[in-house]
Amino acid sequence: MQEYKKGDCLTVTIEDLDTDGQGIGKAEGYTLFVKDALVGDTVKVKIMKAKKNYAFARLEEVITPSSYRVAPKCEHHRRCGGCQLQCLSYEAQLRFKEKKVRNNLVRIGGFKEADIDGIMQPIIGMEEPFHYRNKAQYPIGKDKHTGKPVAGFYAQRTHDIIPNTDCALGVKENKEILERILSWMEVCKIPPYDEVNGEGLVRHVLIRKGFVSGELMVCLVINGGDLPAADRLIESLKEVSGMKSISISINREKTNVIMGTTIRTLWGSDTIEDTLGGIKFRISPLSFYQVNPVQTEKLYAKAVEFAGLTGKESVWDLYCGIGTISLFMAKNAGKVYGVEIIPEAIEDAKGNAERNGFTNTEFFVGKAEEVLPQFYERASREEDMLHPDVIVVDPPRKGCDVQCLDTMIKMRPERIVYVSCDSATLARDLKILCEGGYELKKAVCVDMFGMTGHVETVVLMSKAK
Q: Helices marked H in 319-422 — which ranges?
């Protein structure tokens, strides 16, 4: 095999994409991973990091474009870390995501391809794969040349800010809000935060929008206890149609964590409201709420469909957040129990249930892997809690804790509905559930994140006969 080193330039044809959407090509058996290269491209690349059998390379020139290549909507797409697939046609993006999930189920989960073909439903794509995000977090910094404050996104694998107030994935109001904040900072001499020396004030701007309500929330993350000239900023932001809440989040730590633990409302409400599936939710700056509400309704509708509810079932919703899936289930179930580690989220869930008139829900604070065993031990005389009809899990990217999976198996629900944002950890957990007496019945991908390599998957597991 030919040996290559950093700085070498090669011409390769891209044969496949990895799970992150990077192009994969080979030069005399040596594998090259090339960001922004697509299957079918013939490209000139420069090696940036070389290993013994593979290297990461930078795309220098597209010599012959792939038939799947399209003109990107955003001029910053190659530098920005947010849109890995913007040059790939949307139809090809959907095929890529579906293939990634299938491959993980086979490679990690140990399922047979023929079995996957029998249970996999067609991917549910987006009608409009741009401007779908109801939440954006913009880092604030200083322009190296002018010294003026800028807002944008980090370049991939760095903390260098690419100035951009008009992201193609965000809502149109983001641009006006950011420009008003930057103007206020410049006029009032409000310094942006400097990550290197820990000085400066404004670190990030969080913007959230209720797609149904039209309500807007702005939260400035600051490296201090107060916001100078806050009145001038409030007067400016109030002019934006739909503005409902303006707050600050205090974060004095030298950390990559964006939000601080202290939130203080400067003007308006502490929360905004939005509606999903006819259910109203209150959303705070710290609330977990799916960023694509249009596709979320489709995702949760599939989860409810897979749960097979008739109005009598007992359901446990693990990792319930502010109760979104719980309340979708509660419309069709006898009783729903929600578990979430974040106390504020549980308070939101209880409030959301009460405001929407649900009396068949109960929510608990704690780790799912700790709360479930406690209830399993205590509830031996309460059949509905000991043996729920359905368990729903929507864990973080790392998947379910092994103890949580073990307890789910002990509780012996008839059905398990697994909602996942990472098909690798999903496949790993499904293998454990199958070993514990369950079988894979249905699966479907839902594209929540157009132009990126991420995809949600909903799976139905049933107790084996």
A: 324-330, 343-355, 368-378, 383-386, 402-411
Q: What is the DSSP letter of 83?
A: -
Annotated catalytic residue: which of 219, 421, 434, 445? Answer: 421
Of 348, 324, 344, residue with least CA distance to 336 = 324
Q: Is 219 among the catalytic positions?
A: no
Domain locations in the chain as residue ranges = 9-64, 135-270, 292-463
Contact (Cβ atoms closer than 8 angstroms) between residue 245 and residue 192: no
List strand residue ranges (DSSP E) for 404-455, in order.
415-420, 438-446
- Domain 135-270 in the same topology as domain 9-64: yes
CA dist., res. 228 & res. 185, Å (int) = 10
**Confidence at residue 385, expressed as pLDDT on a 0 to 100 scale:** 52
Distance (Å, rounded) from C-alpha 49 to C-alpha 61?
18
Topology adopted by domain 9-64: OB fold (Dihydrolipoamide Acetyltransferase, E2P) (2.40.50)
Residue for token pair 């919703």: 317
Distance of CA 196 to the CA centre of its chain: 28
What's the CATH architecture for 292-463? 3-Layer(aba) Sandwich (3.40)
Percent helix / strand / coil, the chain, rounded to 5: 25, 30, 40
| Extended beta strands in 145-278, E state | 149-154, 161-163, 202-209, 216-222, 243-250, 262-268, 272-276
160 vs 189: which has the higher pLDDT: 189
Short-list 183, 185, 138, CA closest to 163: 138
Dihedral over Cα of 99, 102, 103, 108: its sign: positive
Q: Model confidence over 53-73: pLDDT tens digits?
A: 999 999 999 999 999 999 999
In degrees, rounded to 5, the angle at the alpha carbon of residue 283 between the alpha carbons of residues 181 and 221 is 35
CA angle 300, 287, 264 (to 5 degrees): 160
Prediction pTM value: 0.91
Class of domain 135-270: mainly beta
Cβ atoms of 285 and 261 within 8 Å: the answer is no
State residue 380's pLDDT score: 56
